[in-house]
TrEMBL record:
Cleavable signal peptide: none
Keyword Metal-binding: no
Gene3D superfamilies: 1.10.8.60, P-loop containing nucleotide triphosphate hydrolases
UniProt-listed InterPro entries: AAA+_ATPase, AAA_lid_NorR, Homeodomain-like_sf, MetOD1, P-loop_NTPase, Sigma_54_int, Sigma_54_int_dom_ATP-bd_2
Hydrolase among keywords: no
CDD domains according to UniProt: AAA
Name of this protein: Two-component system response regulator HydG/two-component system response regulator AtoC
Lineage of origin: Bacteria, Pseudomonadati, Pseudomonadota, Gammaproteobacteria, Chromatiales
Pfam family, one: MetOD1
Amino acid sequence: MPDAPEPPSRAVAFLQSFVSEIAKAMDRAECPNCSAHLEHIEQIGLTAGVCLEEKAREVLGSPRPMDRDHYADLIVEIKNQIGGRFSRASAEAGAVRVVNSRCPFGEQVKHAPSLCRMTSSVFGGIAARHFGYAKVELRQTIAGGDGSCDVCIYLDPQLAARNEGTEYRADGERLTSGNLTTLMTPRVHRRLREKWCPPPVGIGSPDAALQPIVAESAAMRDALRAVRIVAPTDVTVMITGETGCGKELVARALHGLSARRDKPMVTVNCGAIPENLVETALFGHEKGAFTGAYEVHHGYFERAEKGTLFLDEIDSLPLSAQAKLLRVIQEGEYERVGGKRPLRSDVRIIAASNREIVAMVDAGQFRRDLFYRLNVVPIAIPPLRERTEDIDALITHILRKLAQRYATAEKTLVQAARLKALAYAWPGNIREMENVLERAFIFAADARITDIDVPVTAPPESVPAWRTRKQQAAKQAEIDTLTRALRVSHGNVDQIAIQMGITPRAVRMKLKAQGLRAADYR
């Protein structure tokens, strides 16, 4: 018997669902070829191009910034993943040409030729974002009865001037098209992206919940392994670690992987609540409970009902509030301040502390019985100086987020700056690193960040030669390992991730860092 076909990847499923939604929109349109509808299709295409590009990147592992060849591979991948039969064809220098013998929209395209506008805007929008300018010429179309499609994307304005087509230009977040009477503003772009490009990964899936966490070091991988195991339960968890090391991210992962993920997660900074208001903040108060209590106040426990309550800086709670918190955990009920009847509580509690809480218990500053109730599953997050393996991956992760936040091309640290980051102790941990890198990102004159504003504790020129040789040997060993894995798996990133015991995202980052492309081995 032939092997059963593998289910489509999340990227492919998203692309296919997108085509289905566009087709439904065309069916509902009263006038599919009127100018207003054509303009709407154009704007959807420009917005969708961002989402389609990201999904295709998951498959190809395309680099940033892209060159012309990678761009051609990407647009062919987009179309073929949603049912087309595209391939590259020869073109003049300064242009990319693709041909197609099967339309992703099927026979419907012959009755709605405006769907070709979607192809033009997706191809043109992606090119404009990467190269600043593009003109798309639809030389032949299946919709026009030609039997095949022939699309040429001109990236050179001088070459484009001699040919027909629709022009696309990018200025930061702002995209313009020759077919649109108005500019594609960032506000419209965001609104359409929310409507047409919902994230394909469920809110509680491992990819979504664990995506913000970088875990290259053994200590962090152990912590995430514990997160995956205990998240589906309702057990209380105590997360410990220094300020800025990512305790809240771990708490959000616990919530996102639990059955409560569709209910609220309420975060409380216990250290920020005045001592005389702690009980009111946590448990609420009844009308008339004290002077100024004009209405019933719902506390954090009520707001987190059926969900998760994250008590950060739990060590700051006064002893009186600790006693009431213990009662909630033990008996599952509490009373509002001034209340006369108990309220039932169905809340999963996650606590966090940046202090040595065991020492506080020994000193009588924290209730021993409450500590045992909270510390059923302890998860310790080591400081950044103790997991240097994560530093390089964190730098790449943070710089990528900054590029997305400021809608600019990605920037990289030069080797000297990276060595400086590795030598620094980062007393403020990840929070400090984010601030330092954001400052360097903003002031960098080009795509290369040559320095970061931290004290020099080990100048790059003083690094011993043996360390350099060790780093080079480790790099070569990683390249050899990745190359073998790519050959064996035929470029399947998910399979490599399972073999290596790391996340697919970590594999892609390693491939990018070593200049390897998974697509070359498929």
